[in-house]
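Recall the central idea of this unit: under ordinary conditions, the amino acid sequence of a chain determines the structure it adopts. In this exercise we apply that idea directly, starting from the sequence alone.
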Amino acid sequence: MNLESPTVTVEKTQQEVFEFLTKVENFEQLMPESKQKFEKLNDSRFLFQLKGMPEIVLEQKTSTEHTTVVLGAASEKLPFTLTANIVDTQDGKSTTQLIFEGQFNAMMGMMIKNPIQNFINTLSENIGKI
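Accordingly, the structure predicted from this sequence is:
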């Protein structure tokens, strides 16, 4: 399953957005209002829970200086990645788009597609407000 958020313009440079997204504690500011729990586990890992959902542990998998930050599920039970692509717009601003890629069976995919799309859209909107 591949899902994309809308591309948002951020009033920060590409480097500032990259540095913000590589600090896992900053993701608490991006979470939807339905967040019930958020806990930084270490410098590359955090746990969160949304209302009505199980706890999920995300960890920073890779990053490419100033352009890409890739987070992934720490559990193999739900294998997915969330990639932030950051593009410099040359005017002290940047754009960011989130891409979710997961491998789920058809039944699971149908159940989680809309909640995940809403989740990444909210993250993306909130990145635009940083």
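The chain has one domain: 2-127.
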